[in-house]
Amino acid sequence: MTAFLPYIMMPVMALLLVLAQSLWASVIKTGGALQGSLPTIAINLLSNWKMWLGAFIYIVATLVYFYMLSRLRFFSVQIAMTALSIIFSIGLSIFLFGERPSIINGVGIFIVFVGVIMVLDK
Q: Cα–Cα distance between 12 and 65 in angstroms, integer?
């Protein structure tokens, strides 16, 4: 089981990264946090719970990333993290922001997924 744990943690890490960034994006897109002067913007961002939750989730994802780097090749971790983040980003953009991907996006997701499997295959 321990040999497979880094591979199980890989999608968890990618999902956490995208979730944290989605929380931040929701503050920027819908919260009007970037309105006003620079001190007002800073206060808006620092006083928003989604910003803090996103930061906490991002820290947890970074700790998972460190764990994976200690167990797997850097190349495999980076490629899988990037590819899975793309896939999860599209999913969250649909559910959180109501965006609609095209057929080309769907084909791209499939190609990225196949690429992740090829990179992780020893």
A: 10
